From TrEMBL:
Pfam families: MarR_2 (PF12802). It comes from Janibacter alittae. SMART domains: HTH_MARR (SM00347). PANTHER family: HTH-TYPE TRANSCRIPTIONAL REPRESSOR YETL (PTHR33164:SF43), TRANSCRIPTIONAL REGULATOR, MARR FAMILY (PTHR33164). Transmembrane segments: none annotated. The lineage of its organism: Bacteria, Bacillati, Actinomycetota, Actinomycetes, Micrococcales. Residues 1-138 form the HTH marR-type domain. InterPro entries: HTH_MarR-typ, MarR/SlyA-like, WH-like_DNA-bd_sf, WH_DNA-bd_sf. This is MarR family transcriptional regulator.
């Protein structure tokens, strides 16, 4: 028997696979796209902050940041006097890639929401509210 929790799990898994396919022409994986979204929303965060936001280990987030930097989409500057800590910012090329890929990805998912009778912005707001309630629950 299906439940909302299971159906949402299947939806998220399907969205993730679809995002990988839709982002492939831009030369970026969904995981790296998500990292770029987080950095763009929180310019100046550290690799440790990125790891926390992505739910990854610090070494994994470090490899993600390094790959994005090697591609020219991210800058990782050492914080003077803070050991190996680095501050992350998107380059202009990174911002442009995020704009183009985000537009393609967002418009595709917006069309799906409209196809089933939902306003994409209202649905996104509901999802954020639901996430906040679940995160605040014991």
């Amino acid at each position: 028997m299906s439940s909302l929790a299971y159906d949402l799990h299947v939806l998220v898994r399907t969205l993730d696979r679809s995002a990988e396919t839709r982002l492939a022409p831009f030369g970026i994986s969904y995981a790296r796209y998500l990292a770029m979204v987080i950095v763009a929303d929180h310019e100046g965060l550290t690799q440790r902050d990125l790891a926390t936001a992505l739910g990854q280990s610090e070494p994994t987030a470090s490899r993600t940041a390094s790959a994005l930097a090697e591609a020219g989409w991210l800058e990782a500057e050492r914080i003077p006097g803070a050991g190996n800590r680095r501050v992350l910012t998107l380059t202009s090329a990174g911002h442009e890639l995020l704009r183009r890929s985000g537009t393609a990805l967002g418009s595709a998912f917006d069309e799906v929401a409209r196809a089933v009778g939902h306003d994409p912005d209202a649905l996104a707001a509901d999802v954020r509210r639901m996430t906040a309630i679940i995160e605040d629950a014991p």
